[in-house]
Specification:
By secondary structure, the protein is an alpha+beta fold. 21% of the residues lie in helices and 22% in strands. The chain has a six-stranded mixed β-sheet with strand order 3-4-2-1-12-11. The longest helix has 23 residues, at 125-147. The protein is globular, with a radius of gyration of 18 Å.
């Protein structure tokens, strides 16, 4: 089974690219981030015509997560326990939840598509929100694995954190003044390893960026960042047979500023009576 994550940066703008890539690369399950639309605006028909079921969580023209799958999705949820909300200029515990998380179960594997808050600036309220969001997710992850240590679990998506210095090739990101690379953010990312997850892609793809800003010829200069990850439990990692970063999807007309990250799993999806395509 091939599982992937991709920050598509507006699915309505890039639906043709995404569906074409899904079919060409024989992807079974794709977690998407930054779909930037409500469910009724999502171009579901194009996915369905290609043989994919979609589950969508979007509230407005910002954020938003979704799944597309050729195998059945169950146990769909759109938040995790303790997930904080955010509204600019508002404080307190009852802020509205954003569309940043979706969990599904497929073939007994629990997958989450995550769009971690950006943080914006080190002195911005969004930065504190980002750290709180990651801390709550880590606490839930610890609880999930504590309840079921053998759970094949993967948290995948746009983490908006570059955990290693080698993950940063964009010269505008400077230690001490920029989000994504601050000690607190890196510590928040490392906490997921403490509770039982590991990066299942890096051992097979030790180098390579997943994001390049549109500005200043960042992609031709390869001034990117590695901020999209698939973090898996031990049981999930044992299923991984290969991994890849699809850098070429940053090329061509109207690409997303992120590229897909893919893992191959030693799981054969049950026959779903899909027609053979020759």
């Amino acid at each position: 089974m091939r599982v992937a994550t991709w920050n598509v940066n507006s699915i309505r703008t890039r639906v043709g690219r995404v569906v074409d890539w899904l079919v060409r690369e024989d992807i079974d399950v794709l977690g998407m981030q930054e779909i930037k639309c409500k469910p009724e605006q999502f171009p579901a028909e194009a996915f369905e015509e290609a043989g994919y079921e979609v589950q969508i969580h979007g509230l407005n023209q910002w954020n938003g997560v979704a799944f597309a799958s050729r195998v059945p999705l169950t146990d769909v949820t759109t938040s995790f326990e303790g997930m904080p909300g955010f509204l600019k200029g508002q404080e307190g515990p009852d802020q509205p939840l954003e569309a940043r998380a979706m969990g599904v179960t497929v073939e007994g594997i629990r997958l989450w598509s995550l769009y971690v808050p950006n943080g914006r600036a080190l002195d911005d309220a969004h930065y504190a929100y980002k750290l709180d969001w990651l801390a709550a997710l880590a606490a839930d992850t610890q609880r999930w694995l504590g309840n079921d240590p053998a759970l094949p679990l993967a948290l995948m998506g746009d983490w908006n954190v570059a955990p290693l210095d080698s993950d940063v090739g964009d010269p505008t990101f400077v230690q001490g003044v920029s989000t994504h690379i601050s000690p607190a953010e890196r510590a928040a990312f490392a906490a997921f390893e403490t509770v039982g997850l590991s990066d299942v892609v890096r051992p097979r793809v030790p180098e390579g960026f997943t994001f390049w800003d549109y500005k200043q010829l960042r992609f031709p200069r390869n001034e990117g960042m590695r901020i999209d990850f698939i973090m898996g439990s031990d049981a999930f990692a044992e299923l991984v047979t290969d991994a890849s970063i699809h850098r070429n999807e940053r090329k061509g007309d109207a690409p997303s500023d992120h590229v897909p990250v893919v893992v191959d799993l030693a799981v054969d999806p049950e026959d779903d009576d899909r027609p053979m395509i020759f």
